[in-house]
Specification:
Belongs to the acireductone dioxygenase (ARD) family. This is Acireductone dioxygenase. Its cofactor is Fe(2+); Ni(2+). The protein is of the alpha+beta class and 178 residues long. It has a single domain, classed as Jelly Rolls, CATH 2.60.120.10. Strands 1, 2, 3, 4, 6, 7, 8, 9 and 10 form a nine-stranded antiparallel sheet that branches. The radius of gyration is 16 Å and the shape is globular. The relative contact order is 0.23. The mean pLDDT is 95. The structure holds the ligand CSCCC(=O)/C(O)=C/O and fe (ii) ion (FE2).
């Protein structure tokens, strides 16, 4: 896992877009993004422990690739890279391949790019604006943890998202006024 500010330059979303300005763990902690590295071999026990501690009852594995998603690939890639929030925390564990999770720092609204590969586990809090893309490998196999039914539902950034209670609570939790 490596984090840095996104360069905001035009170009394929799957390229690194590395501004060379690194982001440290403390900066990520301030915006409530957590991460672990858990070696893939034998990761199940640690994942079970995290799921139990945080009350997650379900999980699935998604392969984001042309082969994995077939006819849905283009549509899903667009949906994941469109800026959004969730009303639940997002926990993702990368089994193979990799990609980039971009999270918006508040209050600056700058994109922080988090490069993930196999063994990286990321916790993205409810209410933070973010997006995902595969990298140049064009493939990520990821375990997604869900508290309830395994369902992906996103609220795209727009007028309604800024007044969503989960967005407001998130800003409060990091001591930023909504
Ligand atoms: C790599 S898991 C698929 C992407 C996803 O679930 C999500 O919410 C991205 O923000
Ligand atoms: Fe998401």
């Amino acid at each position: 896992m490596r984090a840095y500010f996104f360069d905001n330059l035009p170009g394929d979303q799957r390229l690194p877009h590395d501004s060379s300005r690194s982001v440290d763990a403390e900066t990520l902690n301030k915006i409530k993004v957590e991460f672990w590295h858990i070696p893939v071999e034998g990761h199940e026990a640690k994942l079970d422990e995290i799921a139990k501690e945080r009350g997650y009852r379900n999980r699935d594995v998604i392969t984001v690739s042309k082969e994995g998603l077939g006819g849905e690939y283009e549509e899903k890639i667009k949906a994941f890279y469109k800026e959004h929030i969730h009303e639940d925390e997002e926990i993702r564990y990368i089994l193979s391949g990799g990609g980039f999770f971009d999270v918006r720092q508040a209050p600056t609204d700058e994109w922080i790019r988090i490069a993930v590969s196999s063994g990286d586990l990321l916790v993205i809090p409810a209410g933070i604006y973010h997006r995902f893309t595969v990298d140049e490998r064009n493939m990520s196999r990821t375990t997604r943890l869900f508290k309830d039914e395994p369902k992906w539902s996103a609220i795209y950034r727009g007028d309604e998202s800024d007044t969503n209670p989960h967005r407001i609570n998130y800003l409060k939790s990091i001591a930023v006024a909504a």
